[in-house]
Specification:
With 184 residues, this protein is α+β, with helices and mostly antiparallel strands. Helices cover 38% and strands 14% of the residues. Helix 1 packs antiparallel against helix 2.
Length: 184
């Protein structure tokens, strides 16, 4: 598998995008968004994940982050995807979901071609990771992350989107602490 867009080094920060298969809008339900928030918090507390910016969109997640304390970011993201895949499927099965049959069928068909025995595939293979090298890049990516819901016309202002670190940067209530960067 190519490492062109993987977090293959240690102690460097990355801009990462993790996307659902077929760009399926999984994160339209509050419970699914909290699956991601809780998993990110777990990775922060137990796997050395440092998050500087994030946004949970309906079909993908953006992170500006790095791994510390001897953890490899590629391992953290692998474990995050594995855990959240199971939780996402469990939530689809156990909670009200008008698209249940369609989503489960799609996730089942997405892994039919795989050699390993897998029942459902929620996330696209790999993830898009770009190493952070300059302050300009950091500013550009933080703005990109925070303005994603504005661009999609979900909200008018970045800080109005609850599942984004734009709220942290604005000093507003949030459910996931991040390390705010003061580069602006």
């Amino acid at each position: 598998m190519s490492t062109k867009y993987k977090a293959a080094t240690t102690e460097e920060a990355y801009f990462i995008t993790i996307t659902t298969v077929g760009w399926i809008d999984v994160f339209t339900r509050l419970s699914q968004k909290y699956t991601i928030i809780n998993a990110l918090r777990y990775c922060q507390n137990n796997k050395g994940l440092e998050i500087y910016a994030y946004c949970i969109m309906s079909s993908h997640i953006h992170l500006l982050c790095k791994a510390s304390n001897g953890f490899l970011l590629s391992d953290v993201i692998r474990d995050f995807k594995k855990y959240t895949s199971k939780k996402i499927i469990d939530t689809i099965v156990e909670e009200p979901e008008s698209r249940r049959e369609w989503m489960l069928d799609y996730f089942k068909k997405a892994c039919e071609h795989l050699k390993r025995n897998q029942k459902f595939k929620v996330w696209q293979d790999g993830y898009h990771a770009e190493v952070v090298q300059t302050n300009w890049f950091i500013k550009q990516k933080v703005n990109y992350i925070h303005f994603n819901p504005v661009k999609e016309k979900v909200v008018s202002n970045p800080e109005d989107y609850y599942f984004s670190s734009a709220r942290n940067y604005s000093g507003l209530e949030n459910d996931l602490e991040v390390e705010v960067l003061y580069l602006f």
